[in-house]
């Protein structure tokens, strides 16, 4: 992956399914040009999980893009600073709820640790291709093998079943960057 920065535009080369593409990131857009005038393929809205105000701003931007601007382009809501989990002020569920409500995709990263950034870039490109209907074979992340559940034997099996922790697992489609 190559990255270049020139006059406020960052360029990154991404390889997806054997095809190399170049992503250009504009941050922030030129104040003299309205966002409506730009011909963008996707929007990436980033907020800090440690700053509720940044999430509120991300909410307003997402609402503006989807409702007021009426864009049909891919919008990716990205939570940054996931390495600072003890300082977290914005829950992943709140962010997923926002993403689902405005038909966006959601990802969590840590720019400081370079955590999940490659997956995010590939996901952005995948979303652009899907939204623009550019034919591409679907890419699915490799899942790690699942652990088998331990079966309890003996007198403690009844207690193990009674006190087994059940967590409510919600399937968020906004987490999969490789589907619409």
Automatic annotation (TrEMBL):
Signal peptide: none annotated. Pfam families: Ras (PF00071). InterPro entries: P-loop_NTPase, RGK_GTP-binding_reg, Small_GTPase. SUPFAM superfamilies: P-loop containing nucleoside triphosphate hydrolases (SSF52540). GO terms for molecular function: calcium channel regulator activity; GTP binding; GTPase activity. One of its GO terms (cellular component) is plasma membrane. The keyword Phosphoprotein applies. Keywords: Phosphoprotein. The keyword Phosphoprotein applies. PANTHER family: RAD, GEM/KIR FAMILY MEMBER 2, ISOFORM C (PTHR45775), RAD, GEM_KIR FAMILY MEMBER 2, ISOFORM C (PTHR45775:SF6). This is Uncharacterized protein. It comes from Patella caerulea.
């Amino acid at each position: 992956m190559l990255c270049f920065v020139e006059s406020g535009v960052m360029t990154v080369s991404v390889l997806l399914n054997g095809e190399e593409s170049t992503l250009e990131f504009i941050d922030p857009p030129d104040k003299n040009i309205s966002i409506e005038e730009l011909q963008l393929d996707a929007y990436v809205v980033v907020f800090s999980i440690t700053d509720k105000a940044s999430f509120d701003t991300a909410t307003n931007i997402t609402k503006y893009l989807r409702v007021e601007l009426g864009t049909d382009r891919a919008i990716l809501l990205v939570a940054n600073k996931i390495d600072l989990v003890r300082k977290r002020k914005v829950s992943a569920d709140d962010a997923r709820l926002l993403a689902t409500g405005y038909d966006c995709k959601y990802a969590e990263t840590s720019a400081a640790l370079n955590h999940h950034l490659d997956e995010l870039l590939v996901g952005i490109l995948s979303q652009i291709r899907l939204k623009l209907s550019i034919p591409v074979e679907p890419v699915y992340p490799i899942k790690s093998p699942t652990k088998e559940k331990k079966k309890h034997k003996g007198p403690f099996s009844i207690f193990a079943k009674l006190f087994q922790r059940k967590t409510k697992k919600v399937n968020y489609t906004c987490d999969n960057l490789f589907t619409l």
